[in-house]
């Protein structure tokens, strides 16, 4: 396991812990999501009192989720940080704030959701190639319309970009630095 892989796993685990603690402090219970029987997840713990919501918590993916199929389709090795970020845990998407404002971190909820995520990553990178732009992989949406947060595949840097446009503002030097800078919003 590389140092970067390990530090990113630690940053994600720490953020999850802070998110769950904040949720408990504000709601006197664990985090819940609306139950969707078409999208079951290993994150689901138990039904809430209303029967419509379900308690959940992040679950480590053992072994980590595999990106070989899309790397082969793209003839591109994805940056290790994006594979660690999306491949290490199943989780609900999580709201957070950064120095520049609000965002929602995207995570795969289940194996089925991971497959959908891979299709979206393929489409995103193919669009970048068609536009002759540097390859990025999105991982969060922001409070600003059409602005996403992406990892630049060649460097691992985190940038803001408008959908279909080149990245326009550097946010962090690495995914680990970025995750460590976030505050959970519950």
From TrEMBL:
<keyword id="KW-0472">Membrane</keyword>
<comment type="similarity">
    <text>Belongs to the Syd family.</text>
</comment>
<comment type="function">
    <text>Interacts with the SecY protein in vivo. May bind preferentially to an uncomplexed state of SecY, thus functioning either as a chelating agent for excess SecY in the cell or as a regulatory factor that negatively controls the translocase function.</text>
</comment>
<dbReference type="GO" id="GO:0009898">
    <property type="term" value="C:cytoplasmic side of plasma membrane"/>
</dbReference>
<protein>
    <recommendedName>
        <fullName>Protein Syd</fullName>
    </recommendedName>
</protein>
<dbReference type="InterPro" id="IPR009948">
    <property type="entry name" value="Syd"/>
</dbReference>
<keyword id="KW-0997">Cell inner membrane</keyword>
<keyword id="KW-1003">Cell membrane</keyword>
<dbReference type="InterPro" id="IPR038228">
    <property type="entry name" value="Syd_sf"/>
</dbReference>
<dbReference type="Pfam" id="PF07348">
    <property type="entry name" value="Syd"/>
</dbReference>
């Amino acid at each position: 396991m590389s140092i970067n892989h390990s530090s990113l796993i630690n940053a994600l685990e720490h953020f999850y812990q802070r998110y769950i603690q904040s949720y408990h402090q504000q709601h006197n219970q664990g985090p819940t999501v609306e139950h969707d029987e078409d999208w079951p997840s290993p994150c689901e713990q138990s039904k809430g009192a209303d029967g419509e919501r379900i308690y959940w918590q992040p679950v480590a993916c053992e072994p980590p989720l595999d990106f070989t199929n899309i790397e082969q389709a793209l003839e591109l090795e994805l940056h290790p940080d994006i594979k660690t970020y999306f491949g290490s845990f199943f989780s609900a998407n999580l709201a957070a704030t950064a120095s520049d404002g609000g965002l929602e971190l995207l995570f795969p909820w289940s194996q089925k959701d991971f497959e959908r995520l891979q299709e979206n990553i393929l489409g995103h990178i193919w669009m970048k190639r068609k536009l002759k732009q540097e390859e990025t992989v999105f991982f969060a949406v922001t409070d600003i319309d059409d602005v996403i947060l992406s990892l630049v595949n060649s460097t691992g840097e985190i940038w803001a970009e408008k959908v279909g446009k080149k990245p326009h503002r550097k946010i962090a030097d690495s995914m680990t630095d970025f995750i460590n800078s976030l505050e959970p919003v519950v």
